[in-house]
Q: What sequence folds into this?
């Protein structure tokens, strides 16, 4: 019987390998978007090139999406079922450093100047997430 992760990979046309299933599991269990260093920390020994290729394969097959967190790195998160159809806003918390997908908040329509051709919006709002704000209020 195929595992949940094996089925997800096959559904996206990705050949399931042990590494791909492990990376997918970590992304699935994550509560926020992860950068390569954070993903790497889940594994005792991992080949950097294999991890990077796994991430790029997931991106090319629309299993995950990437977002520049507005600070220092590119982060990756699993795509929801409507990920390809509606670009959403991301939120980067300045206190806990998490980058969170706000899937129900669509990227606002931006009219570009003549001659500019946009390809993919990357909309990140920085501030304090609800969890950090709540903790701050309790103090």
A:
């Amino acid at each position: 019987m195929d595992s949940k992760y094996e089925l997800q990979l096959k559904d996206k046309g990705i050949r399931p390998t042990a590494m791909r299933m492990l990376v997918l599991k970590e992304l699935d269990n994550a509560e926020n978007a992860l950068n390569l260093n954070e993903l790497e920390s889940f594994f005792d020994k991992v080949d950097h090139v294999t991890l990077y290729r796994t991430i790029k394969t997931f991106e090319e097959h629309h299993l995950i999406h990437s977002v520049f967190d507005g600070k220092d790195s590119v982060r990756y998160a699993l795509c929801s079922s409507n990920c390809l159809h509606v670009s959403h806003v991301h939120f980067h918390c300045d206190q806990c450093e998490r980058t969170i997908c706000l899937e129900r908040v669509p990227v606002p329509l931006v009219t570009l100047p003549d001659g500019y051709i946009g390809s993919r919006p990357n909309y990140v709002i920085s501030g304090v997430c609800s969890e950090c704000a709540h903790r701050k209020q309790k103090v």
Remarks:
- The radius of gyration is 17 Å.
- The mean pLDDT is 86.
- The chain has one domain: 4-138.
